[in-house]
Amino acid sequence: MTAGCPPTAEPGIAGRLAAVGRRIGLACARAGVPPGGVRFVAVSKFHGTPALAAALEAGHRHFGESRVQEAQGKWPPLLERHPGTALHLIGPLQTNKAAAAVRVFDVVHSLDRPRLAAALAAAMERTGRRPDCFVQVNTGGEPHKSGVPVAEAEALVKECVGTYGLPVVGLMCIPPYGSDPRPHFGLLRALAAEYGLRELSMGMSASFEAAVAEGATTVRVGEAVFGPRPRP
Length: 232
Ligand SMILES: *Cc1c(COP(=O)(O)O)cnc(C)c1O
Hints:
alpha/beta; 10 helices; 9 strands; binds pyridoxal-5'-phosphate
């Protein structure tokens, strides 16, 4: 080791939560959004209990998970110890897991097809739980990506609300990997305004400041908080 050059301190999860929170606050100030106007979901997928516990101890209360079974496995004991914690489903949802999803999650970000809307409505009816829903839009028109095509998004929103009575609060998108995300964020904002929806779930570790500038009301940040993800 070079003398006089100590290893940099690993800031740890609490430090990174605070740093991302500050960056969100600055982005809000630049965008003229009131402080606290953007919800910060820490994406904890593939991370184990010690990482989750560290974030909870630091006072964080919104977490994103991509898989129903993984969330069912690791969260219940933590939720018991930290009431007021909200879990967000950000990954694709199979219709046969809708009931389980409604039981464990407080917000569903990945509603993207009529059959899933029907399954979620039935699950809400059965469980009495009504997680807020975002309709996920495939803004990049990527063939194998989840999300409703832009051309079908309005019809899906109408069906979710009108036919199924789902609590749709807004739209969500995941821009194509490696492309400038801002046009996608701008498109999502325009679509939400057209449909009369207020919430926008957009922006990840590499793009949350751009997302706030484009009107995000929820950002989903993983690696900037928890570091590189272990393989699932
Ligand atoms: C994994 C994931 C994130 C977080 O991505 P990072 O690059 O780690 O911030 C956000 N949104 C969705 C839908 C994800 O699957």
